From TrEMBL:
Reaction(s) catalysed (UniProt annotation): N(6)-acetyl-L-lysyl-[protein] + NAD(+) + H2O = 2''-O-acetyl-ADP-D-ribose + nicotinamide + L-lysyl-[protein]
Protein's name in the database: NAD-dependent protein deacetylase
Cofactors named for this entry: Zn(2+)
InterPro entries in the record: DHS-like_NAD/FAD-binding_dom, NAD-dep_sirtuin_deacylases, Sirtuin, Sirtuin_cat_small_dom_sf, Sirtuin_class_U, Ssirtuin_cat_dom
Coarse class of the protein's main subcellular location: cytoplasm
Name of the coding gene: cobB
Top-level taxon of origin: Bacteria
Keywords: Cytoplasm, Metal-binding, NAD, Transferase, Zinc
Localisation per UniProt entry: Cytoplasm
């Protein structure tokens, strides 16, 4: 592991155009459970499976049940950034990291100081009235009950997160593609790469070095110049 850490440090120190692509595993070390791990949301008992509850059709048909689950299992507002978030923010400040492309919706990258964060699946911190468009923070939803209502017009307030059956934001996708095409080093970590179309973005990377830091095997492991199996926060804390 020491040799692998040293190699990762060498790659990152030489790079002037890094891009990081991450998923739920990045936030798990901050206490936010992922969907597919043994103790993740997919293995907990609910009346409906999470992938059903977090769909657009379920939201439209059963909004109160949606928000009961959403408040209980999707809002971790006290979570703090871990060493992975902090190291990425440091690289951006140094002008060596072009972008963080994340599948997470928790806002921890921004909390750590990152600015160019491309949130493929939206953010729990952005919520809007479906009638008048007024914006609300996550605390507003957390303090509400039932279906949250706009304090201005009474319309329903919806999280700006991408639910199942919804399309990704095209502007965010285009920025992610642009960053990947400019990158000389791509670091992939904390993701199962099973969620599409997000995982399909990696084909746009044209750089010379690929590093994978993940606890589980990934389809692109054989293409990696460096493969480290481990928790990404622990690995990044050693850089």
């Amino acid at each position: 592991m020491d040799q692998e850490i040293a190699r990762l440090k060498e790659l990152t120190e030489k790079s002037r155009a890094m891009v990081f692509f991450g998923g739920a595993g990045v936030s798990k070390e901050s206490g936010i459970p992922d969907f597919r791990s043994v103790d993740g949301l997919y293995h907990q008992a609910y009346r409906y499976p999470p992938e059903t509850i977090l769909s657009r059709s379920f939201y439209e048909k059963n909004p109160e049940e949606f928000y009961r689950f959403y408040r209980d299992k999707m809002l971790y507002l006290d979570a703090e950034p871990n060493p992975a978030h902090k190291k990425l923010a440091q690289w951006e400040r140094e002008g060596r990291l072009l972008a963080v492309i994340t599948q997470n919706i928790d806002g921890l990258h921004q909390k750590a100081g990152s600015r160019n964060v491309l949130e493929l699946h939206g953010s729990v911190h952005r919520n809007y009235c479906r009638r008048c468009g007024k914006l609300f923070d996550a605390q507003y939803l957390l303090r509400s009950s039932g279906v949250p209502r706009c304090d201005q017009c009474g319309g329903a307030v919806k999280p700006d997160v991408v639910l199942y059956e919804e399309a990704l934001d095209q502007a965010v996708l285009q920025k992610a593609v642009g960053a990947l095409r400019q990158a000389d080093l791509l670091i992939v970590g904390g993701t199962s790469l099973t969620v599409y179309p997000a995982a399909g973005l990696l084909r746009y990377f044209q750089g010379s070095r690929l590093a994978v830091v993940n606890q589980t095997a990934l389809p692109l492991d054989q293409e990696a110049d460096l493969l480290i199996q481990g928790q990404i926060g622990q690995v990044f804390s050693q850089l």
